């Protein structure tokens, strides 16, 4: 499974998510999208447009993941260095690895990171 994890501000748009995914996802065949559970309504249009499942990630799972990026804003808001990286890794499952660190959309409203999970 290859998961695109997202972090975002409340004003993020479909274009914000598409831009972040285009930057982070180059060369990767994403099979699922993930983000904090409370952002599902913002990501649903992208998941629908791409025909991919959305994996909601609970807050405790985000905080349990060690990320490559260390953003103070992300730590303050969600208890993790990168919401996008943490969402991708948590959704991809145990022993997942980060394929790309977070990339920031040009409007700075969304971030995306890609993680690969081990086949079960």
Give the averaged pLDDT, no decimals: 91
The beta-strand count equals: 5
Largest sheet: 5 strands, mixed
Low-pLDDT ranges: none
Strand content: 25-35%
| Broad shape | globular
Task: Write down the secondary-structure element order.
Answer: EHEHEHHHEE
CATH superfamily, by name, is CobE/GbiG C-terminal domain
What count of helical segments does DSSP give?
Answer: 5
Please state the CA-atom Rg, rounded to the nearest Å. Answer: 12 Å
> How many domains make up the coordinates?
1
Q: At the third CATH level, what is the topology name?
A: Nucleotidyltransferase, domain 5
The neighbouring-strand order within the major sheet is 3-2-1-5-4
CATH class: Alpha Beta
Q: Span from first to last CA?
A: 10 Å
Quickly give the structural class: alpha/beta
What is the CATH architecture term? 2-Layer Sandwich
Range of helix content: 25-40%
């Amino acid at each position: 499974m290859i998961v695109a994890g997202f972090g975002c501000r409340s004003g993020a748009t479909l274009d914000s998510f598409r831009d972040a995914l285009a930057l982070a996802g180059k060369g990767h065949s994403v099979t699922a999208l993930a983000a904090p559970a409370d952002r599902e309504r913002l990501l649903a249009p992208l998941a629908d447009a791409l025909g991919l499942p959305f994996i909601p990630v609970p807050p405790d799972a985000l905080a349990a993941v060690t990320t490559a990026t260390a953003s103070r804003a992300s730590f303050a808001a969600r208890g993790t260095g990168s919401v996008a990286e943490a969402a991708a890794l948590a959704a991809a499952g145990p022993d997942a690895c980060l394929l790309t660190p977070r990339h920031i959309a040009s409007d700075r409203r969304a971030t995306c990171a890609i993680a690969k999970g081990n086949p079960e």
